[in-house]
Amino acid sequence: MAHFSGEDQAMLQAMLRQLFQNVKEKITGAPSLECAEEILLHLEETDENFHNYEFVKYLRQHICNTLGSMIEEEMEKWTSDQNQSEESGYDTVVQHVTKRTQESKEYKEMMHSLKNTMMVVVESMINKFEEDEMRSQERQKKMQKEKSSSYCTDNCSDSDSSFNQSYKFCQGKLQLILDQLDPGQPKEVRYEALHTLCSAPPSDVLTCENWTTLCEKLTMSLSDPDPVFSDRILKFYAQTFTLSPLHLTKEIYTSIAKYLEIYFLSRENHIPPISAGIDITSPNVIRLLKKVRLLNEYQKEAPSFWIRHPEKYMEEIVESTLSLLSLKHDQSHLVSQKVLHPIYFLVLVDTKAVWFKKWMHGYYSRTVVLRLLEKKYKSLITTAVQQCVQYFELCEAMKADETVGHSKHCGNKQKTFFYSGQELQYIYFIHSLCLLGRLLIYTQGRKLFPIKLKNRKDSLSLTDLLVLFTQLIYYSPSCPKMTSAAHLENYSPASMVTEVLQILCDQKECAVECLYNSTVVEALLQPIHNLMRGTKAAPNCSETALIYIADVLARIASVEEGLTLLLYGENMNSSKEKSSTGAHIIAQFLKKLLDEDISIFSGSEMLPMVKGAFISTCCQIYGTCEGLQVLIPYSLHESLAKAWKKTSLLSDRIPTPVEDSDSVSSISQESQNIMAWEENLLDGLLNFAATPKGLLLLQRTDAINECVTFMFNRYAKKLQDIIDRLIILNSEAKIRSLFNYEQSHIFGLRLLSVICCSLDTLLLLEAQYQVSEILLRAQEESILETSEGHRDFIIDGLSVERNHVLVRMNLIGGPVERILPPRMLEKGDDPYPWPMFSSYPLPNCYLSEVTRNADLKQDSDLSKILLHFKMSDKQTEWIENCQRQFCKMMKAKPDMISGGALVELLENFVLHLSESPSECYFPSVEYTATDANVKNESLSLVQQLGIQMTVRYGKFLNLLKDGAEHDLTWVLKHCERFLKQQRALVKSSLLCLQGGCAGHDWFVSSLFMLMLGDRQKTLRFLQQFSRLLASAFLWLPRLHISRCLPVDTIESGIHPVYFCSTHYIEMLLKAEVPLVFSAFHMSGFAPSQICLQWITQCFWNYLDWIEICHYIATCVFLGPDYQVYICIAIFRHLQQDILQHTQTQDLQVFLKEEALHGFRVSDYFEYMEILEQNYRPVLLRDMRNIRAQST
C-alpha cells in the first residue's frame, strides 16, 4: 500500500467493477441505502461466489501479508498452554486471536492505509462513472454473443487483467482445454493448453463444472514422460495452492496423494529396493521428489488456515496423507529386499517431520490426526517404532567404525547426489524419532502404546520406548569428525534424541508419565554406573553423550516430581539402599570428576564441559533444601572449592601474550577456556546460597567473596547509591538531578517504609542519618499559614506518604495495637481526615484502644498447672505433664496464658530444666560481675535507641513505668558482660564478627516487658534459660561468636537460626503448603528472609503482644522446633494473601509491611502437633547438632 501506482489503481477499479456488476441486482433492489450496506456486509453468507471475486481475493491476500505473521504468533501463544488440556475449542481461539488482532497497532494502520487507498479508487471511479458504465454495457453485449457460440475460440491475452480473464474463461473454453490435453494430441497443442490453463485465474478453473474431469486428466498427465509437461502441471497446482481457498485446494492435494499411491502400487513403475539407494540426479527421482515436495509444502502451510474452514476438508487432507504414508508392498519380508515406500521420499524433503509437528500443534487438527492413527493408520506408528528399534539393534550389534558409515549423513550437510540404503534408513530413523517425540507430548498420543512389533514376543510399552531413546544417546555413533562444526549436531542421533527428551521434560504431564520412573532414570544412569565401576560406559559413549545425559537429568531434577524420584526413588519407603538412588550416583560421579579420581577421557578438551554439565545437574538438586540434605555427605562444596582454587592458580600462571608471537592465539584460547571453567565452578558454588544451610557450607569454603563478586558483576549496571539520592533529599543539587522530584521522592519514601520494617535497620538509619528528623522538617515545610493565623498542612502525595512513614517508624505494635494512616486520599469533602504532625509525640488517634495488661483472674485449670510445677514426680513424667497441661490451656483458654501467670509458669519451668543436667544443652557459666563491673560497659547508639523504642511500647501496653529505661540498660549491660565471657577469639575480616552482636536484643527486651520491668528477675531468668537448647534459637545474641559453636561455624558469621530453623521452614513449606512455596519461588523472594526478620525481632510489629508471649512460651515449653512449626502455620494462614500478592508482584512488600492479621498461635496448635509428629526427630537432631564440627 505504501507504493500505490496507477497500475494498482486500475487493477482495483477492475476488481470493484466485477464485484458491483455481480451484486448489482441485490443492491438496486434494496429499499434504502442502509439496507444496501447491510446486504454488502452479509454478502459472504448470501453469495456462494463471494470467495471467487478478485477484490475479495485481493483483500484476503493483503490481510495475510500485513497481519499473517502476527496472527500466527497470537495463535502460537494461545495454543501453547492448551497442548495438554485438549479442551480449548476452536471458537475460543478464533475469538481471542480476532480480538487481539483488532486491538493491535498493525491492524489500525492497515485499516487506515486501506481506507485512504479505497477512497482514492472510489473517487476516481465516481469521476469516470458514465464512461465506465458505457464500457461495461458494451462488454456485457460482447459476453452475451460469446455465450451463444458452442465453443470459445478466441485466445486469452496475457496482458488482460484477471478480471477480464475471469469472464473470458468459460465452460466451453475448459472443454476445449480438456480435449487439447489428451495424450494423443501434438506436443505443441498440449503445451498451449497448459499455458492457457496456467494463465487463467485458478478460482475460475476450479469452479467450472468440468473441474473434476480436468483434475483427473491432469493427475493422469503427471506420469507423462515429458518432464516439461509434468512440471507445468505442478506449476499449475502450486499456483492453485497459493491463490485458492481450502475447499478447492483440498481436491488438488488429495488427487496428487492418490496419484502417488497408484504410482507406488503399480508394478509397471519398477520401484527399486531400499538396498539400491536413491540417485537424486535421476530424472524419474527428480520428478517424484518434486511431487512429494509440493505435497509437503502444502502440508506445512495448510494448518495456518484450515482452522477457518469446516473440519471435513481438513480430515480429507489428513486421511489422504496418512493413507499414502502407510502404503506398503506385499513383497518380501527381508530387509535387503524391501522396496522404497512413499515415506522414504517424504523424509528426504522433511527429515525432522515438520509437517507432523504443525499438524499436532493445534487441537483442531490434532484430534483428527490422533483419531485416524488409532482407528485406521496405527501401522504408521508401528513402522516408526520399528525403525527406531532396528537402528538401536544395529548400533548395539556393530562396531563403532561400521556404524559411522551407516550414519555419516547425520552431520554432512554438503551436497549429496546419492543416498545409499543405509543412509535412507538412517534418515527415516530421524524422521521416525521426531514423529514419535511429537506424538508422546499428547495424552491421546501416549494412549497408542503399547505397540505390537513384528518378530517381537512382547509388546513395546511407553517405558520401553523411552529406555530405547535413552540408550540411543550413548550407543549411537558420533558424527564423522570431518564434517563442518556448524552443522555437526544437526542430525546426530544423540542430539536428536536429546532434543526429543528435552521437549518431553518441558511438558510436565508428559514428563511424569514418560520419564519420571526408575526404569528410565536407571537407563540414563547406566553409563555413569559403568564408568564408576571402571568399565566402558557403552560402545560409542563419548563426552558429548555424557553432556546430553547430564542435561536431561538436570531437567528432571528441576521439577518437584523428578527431584523426588532422584532423591528417594519410586518407593520412598522401600528398604532398598538409599545410596543407590539417582541423586547419590550423580553426586558420587561428580565428586570423582572434580577430585580427578576417575580416568575417564583423561586429557580430553571436553572434560571440563562434562564436569560443568554434571555441576549444573547437581545445582538443581542441592539448590533445594531436601536435595541438600541428601547430598551433604558428599561435601561437593569442598570439591568445587578445591577445583576452583586450582583453576584460579592456573589462570594466574598463564603468560602474557607477546605481540606478533605465534602463540598468541593458543594462549588466548587457553585463557578463555580456563576463565570459562573458573566461572562454571563459581556458579556451582554460588548455587549453594539458594538455601540457608547451603549458604553456611559456601561460607566455609573461603570462596564466598569471589562468588559475591561474580554475582555482583552480573548486576553491577543495575545498582544505584538509592538512599542518598531518593530518600535524603537535603540539597537543591539532589533535587535537580532527579527527572521527576515528586515521583522519585515518593518512590524513595516507599522504599524507606519497606526498609524500616526491619527494626534493626530502622534503628541504624536513625542512628546514622536521623531520618525521622529529616522527615519531620519536611512536614514542617509543608505547613501553610492562613490569613486567620491558622497553620494547615498542604495535602499532597509527599506529605501523605511522609505522614505514613513517620507513624510507622515511631509506633510499635501488632495488627490490633497500632493504627497506620492510609497512603491514598479518600473521596468526599475531607479527602484526608488523619491529622498530620511535624513533631513527636504522635496524635492519640494513631494509638489503638486495646486492653492493656489486664491480668485475668486465675481459674482452676491454671492453678492445676502451677500446682504441677511444685510436684516432685519423675523428671520425664513431670516435663510431659507440664507440657500436656500447657497445650490443653492453649487450646481451651489461651488468653489465660498471659501476664503474671505466664511469668510464673516460665520461671518455674525454666528453673526446673536448668537444674537438670539431662535437660541442659549448654554448660553452666559462673557469672560474678557486679553493678560496678558493668558500670563502664557502653551500649551502642542503636541499642540506646532500641531501649527507647522498647520503653515506648511497654508504656503503651501499661507494662513498664518511669525509670524503665535505666533498668533495661542495666539488664542489657549485664547480658553483654555475661555473653562476652563465653565468646571465642576470632580473627576475621567480617565486620559482623568485630565486637558484640549488631542490632538490638529484641528477645531480652521482650522478656523485660514480660517481667513487667523487673530487672533482677529478667537477668536471673536469662542466666538459667541460657543453658537450654531453646536459648540458641530464641535469644539470637546468645550464640554470637560463642565458644559453644565449632570454629568454622563461628567464622562463617551465620547464625543457627538461619542455617537450621529457616532451612527447615523452607523444607517443610514445600511439603506442607506447596502453593505458597511456589509463590515464593516465582517471586524470587525466599521464605527464609522474612522468617529471619520475624524471628530476629521476636515478631514485633507483626503480632500483638499476647501472641508474642505465646510464641515465646510455646518454644520454651514444647521445644525450639516449634519455632519452625509456628512459621509454617503463619504461611498457611496467609496462603490466599500470598497467592494474591504474587499475582500483583508485590509479595515482598506485603510480607514486610503488613502485620499478621487474624493469626493466633493457639488456633494452630492441633496443626502444629501434627507437624511435630512428622518432623520432630529430624529437626531436633539437627538443632542439637549445631555444636558439631561438620554440618
UniProtKB/TrEMBL annotation:
Annotated ranges, domain BROMI middle region: 173-720
InterPro entries: BROMI_C, BROMI_M, BROMI_N, PHAF1/BROMI, Rab-GAP_TBC_sf
Biased composition (Basic and acidic residues): 134-148
Annotated coiled-coil segments of the chain: none
Entry GO CC: cilium; cytoplasm
Cytoplasm among keywords: yes
Any GO BP: non-motile cilium assembly
Record key words, sorted: Cell projection, Cilium, Cytoplasm, Developmental protein
Domain BROMI N-terminal, first and last residues per copy: 12-138
Localisation: Cell projection, Cilium; Cytoplasm
Assembly with partners or alone: Interacts with CDK20, which promotes CDK20 stability and function. Interacts with FAM149B1; may play a role in cilium assembly.
Function of the protein: Required for high-level Shh responses in the developing neural tube. Together with CDK20, controls the structure of the primary cilium by coordinating assembly of the ciliary membrane and axoneme, allowing GLI2 to be properly activated in response to Shh signaling.
PANTHER family on file: PROTEIN BROAD-MINDED (PTHR13465:SF3), UPF0183 PROTEIN (PTHR13465)
Protein name, entry field: Protein broad-minded
Species of origin: Phyllostomus discolor (pale spear-nosed bat)
